């Protein structure tokens, strides 16, 4: 598990690290009066939130490089997740893209 102490340079107001379940994180955020969260996670974290319908939007940065290996964006999912493209913006002259997707609600979240 990652802790804030592992990332002292990245510390920002409102940035929290958690090993809690997605459901518990959402309940706590709601009880704190938050209406939205930004999830920054690895493959397992992304899959856990996607699998139970807790992701509304997805922002994906696409770099113009092909790697021979690397970490997956998401771990295996329980089911296929449909994405609806909202926008795609070129971020720089090298061709880096920011793709913004909506995830239509097809299953019940928390």
What report would you give on this structure?
The structure is a single chain. β2 (84-90) and β3 (97-102) form a beta hairpin. The chain is α+β, with helices and mostly antiparallel strands. It is built from two helices and three strands.
Annotation keywords:
3-stranded antiparallel β-sheet, 17% strand, 110 residues, 3 strands, alpha+beta
Main sheet record: 3 strands, antiparallel
Shape: globular
Q: Give the overall average pLDDT.
A: 87
Low-confidence stretches: none
What portion of the residues fall into strands of 2 or more residues?
A: 15-25%
- SS element count, helices: 2
The helicity comes to 10-25%
SS content category: alpha+beta
Give the distance, in angstroms, between the N- and C-terminal Cα atoms. 24 Å
Rg result: 16 Å
**Element-level helix/strand string:** HHEEE
Biggest sheet strand order reads 1-3-2
Secondary structure: number of strands? 3
Topology:
Blueprint: H1 22-31, H2 43-51, E1 57-62, E2 84-90, E3 97-102
Antiparallel strand pairs: 1-3, 2-3
């Amino acid at each position: 598990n990652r802790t804030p102490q592992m990332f002292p340079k990245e510390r920002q107001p409102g940035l929290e690290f958690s090993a809690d379940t997605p459901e518990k994180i959402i309940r706590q955020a709601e009880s704190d009066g938050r209406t939205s969260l930004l999830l920054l996670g690895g493959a397992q974290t992304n899959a856990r939130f996607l699998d139970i319908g807790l992701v509304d939007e997805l922002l994906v940065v696409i770099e113009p490089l092909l790697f021979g290996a690397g970490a997956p964006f998401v771990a295996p999912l329980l089911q296929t997740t449909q994405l609806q493209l909202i926008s795609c913006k070129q971020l720089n002259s090298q061709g880096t893209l920011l793709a913004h997707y909506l995830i239509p609600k097809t299953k019940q979240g928390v």
